[in-house]
Amino acid sequence: MRLFFAATALSLTAAPAMAAGPLVSATLTEAAEGNVAVKGAAFRCNGNECRTNSDRSRPAVLCERLVKEVGPVTRFAIDGEEFDADALAACNAKAR
């Protein structure tokens, strides 16, 4: 019985970490520091790299929203799957 309660408690405390959403990462052409809030995500930027965990929007929309705030990106990826050249060009077309 104790094992059941311990396992249940462990699964309840681990659930929020698993629900964080996919890792979104971008490499910027110009450095940015701190948090960059876009609708659907809050990116943490350090130099030319920005990251967030978000499942609130389509990747292309997140990319477009990010470049509107920080300028063009040279790389954009969701859980390690990078945008191809066409998707990256379409995203950067929305840059500020």
TrEMBL record:
Give the UniProt keywords, A-Z: Signal
Taxonomy, superkingdom: Bacteria
- Give a Pfam family name: DUF8200
The signal peptide here is 1-19
Q: What is this protein called?
A: Uncharacterized protein
In its UniProt entry, the species of origin is given as Sphingomicrobium sediminis
